[in-house]
Design brief:
The protein is α/β, with parallel strands linked by helices. It contains five helices and twelve strands. The termini are far apart.
């Protein structure tokens, strides 16, 4: 069907093929699974489920979100259940942003998430409450840094025009014990490394990198060299890397 608009639904049964029912045509449905999997992995490493994480990242035809108007904000959940410092909270939110913006399906950002809004929605009449934008948060360095991470990730999707057309993520490395998962996008031109634990890992070796040579971290401009399809890298707690292959 050729149409000049995009149809999404909230209450379709969540399957990897939202167009299987010929009686109703939609382009995508909202993925509560993505929210549940990522928020649980970020707040509690013991709930890290690599198979569900891979599904959340790679399933097409969805609208993925960390937060929406029907659930508490990720920053609130991290503050309430993560039991971590302010710096660690923003580090985990950064990782969440990386997974959201590099996953296969369409990313949705609820206004305020991009700079660390953390107010509680609460169970009492949540849709009758007013939450004016807290623009002053951007004056704080951690909030501003998170905002700039979202900006850079949005720029990546805009510059790589096939990002939304290439509905595939290739999982090249995983280690459940280390809570680590690496995948590539856009015909292996973009390498994403996710690290869902509070451990510091120095000179960590990741194998099965699709291309040898020079890679640049899109978010930090750090340079890396891959030899023999192996990469050595330092990973902070709840770290995320977005490496771009250089010709």
């Amino acid at each position: 069907m050729n149409q000049p608009f995009f149809i999404q639904t909230r209450y379709t049964n969540e399957t990897s093929d939202t167009n299987s029912n010929e009686s109703i045509f939609v382009d995508a449905c909202w993925s509560s699974t993505f929210h549940n999997v990522i928020s649980q992995a970020l707040t509690n490493p013991d709930k890290f489920d690599v198979d569900r994480l891979k599904y959340a990242i790679s399933a097409p035809n969805f609208v993925n979100y960390l937060t929406r108007h029907d659930n508490e904000r990720l920053m609130f959940l991290l503050n309430q259940f993560g039991q971590v410092s302010c710096e660690e909270t923003f580090q985990r939110a950064r990782l969440g942003a990386i997974v959201l913006m590099t996953s296969v399906s369409i990313p949705l950002i609820w206004q305020g998430d991009e700079f660390g809004e953390a107010r509680q929605l609460g169970p009492k009449n949540p849709h009758q409450k007013q939450f004016p934008m807290q623009w002053s948060l951007i004056e704080n360095k951690p909030n501003r840094d998170l905002f700039e991470i979202f900006q850079r990730l949005i720029q990546l999707r805009l510059l790589k025009l096939n990002f939304d057309k290439t509905k595939q993520a290739n999982f090249i490395y995983q280690n459940y014990d280390h809570r680590l998962l690496a995948y590539t996008r856009l015909n292996n031109e973009i390498l994403v490394i996710t690290h869902f634990t509070n451990e510091l890992r120095m000179n960590y070796e990741i194998g099965n990198i699709p291309f040898n040579g020079h890679w640049i971290d899109w978010l930090t401009n750090e340079s890396y060299t891959v030899e023999n399809n192996r990469l050595q890298i330092d990973l902070k707690p709840f770290d995320g890397k977005v490496l771009i292959r250089q010709d």
